[in-house]
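Case study 2.
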Amino acid sequence: MTNVTSLDAARSSPRKLARKLGKFCGHRHSILVCEEDRTVECGTCGAKLDPFDALATVMREWDKWEQSKARSEHDARRASDELAEVKRHLANAKAGLRRATR
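Prediction:
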């Protein structure tokens, strides 16, 4: 039985990849890696892809994902800090209101 691994992360730039190969199958590639045959192909139509180009595409997508993750984590920390600041102001306002109504 052939061991086939799907590399869906490589779907973002199939046109560039296909242009380098001199053909374009028209699909957003779901890249399949056949370890037994040592080949890489489009999971939709079976067009043969250059393994190095497929790997390079996956690596670029991984880098983009890591950058996006870092931005999201930074935004989440900033939002958490802002929420803590708003809660602190709210607590101070409530305390001031309690003091004023005594």
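The mean pLDDT is 79.
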